[in-house]
Hints:
Elements: H1 2-7, E1 9-12, H2 18-33, E2 38-39, E3 58-61, H3 69-89, E4 95-103, E5 107-112, E6 122-129, E7 142-145, E8 156-159, E9 166-170, E10 176-181, E11 185-193
Antiparallel strand pairs: 1-9, 2-3, 3-4, 4-11, 5-10, 6-9, 6-11, 7-8, 7-10
Amino acid sequence: MKNLADFGYAIIPGFIELPLVRELVAESRDSRAEGDFVPAAIGMGDQKQVVAQIRTDEIRWLEPQNLSGPQSRYWDQMEVLRVTLNRTLFLGLFELEAHLACFPPGGFYKAHLDCHQNSNARILSTIIYLDEGWATADGGQLRLYIDRETGINGASIDIFPEPGKLVVFLSPVFWHEVRVSTRHRHSMTGWFRRRPE
Ligand code: OGA
Ligand code: MN
């Protein structure tokens, strides 16, 4: 996690091991097939709306009291990460909110910041990818604009959604987008939040 301290973001391949990734993606597919996913919205509160020109993913929020076995193993690993980051980087991460996500073929999410207007609750964004056999031609890269001064006008890196890979970055700082994906793209996206005021 040295990169997180130095640059504000980090990429950790193999954060979730493959057997667990397989269980998580199978559950996610089943749950979506049963109609548990909803089109993702942007904004919050009264401002919340679904805008398919901006993002086309479908999501299901995780309920900490109501996790499946594989989901609670994910949650436990995130808790270890939270405590470790607080101890080493003093980030003051208080709690996790997380959802399952699926971008259908043709899906994308235009450049954005993960912080809601009027709320600074989200400190750290975390994304874990769940699809095996991802090829460059499948697209679906996470494009992370790594220069915090220039944002979307500056340098970026493309991160391919390889299974079990974790990407973390400071939520208020880094613009990012999901490039068009030619296949179903599954992930678990979480945000560590600060203690409510
Ligand atoms: C998000 C997001 C990136 C990704 O859900 O806010 O930016 O790679 N996801 O899935
Ligand atoms: Mn985002």
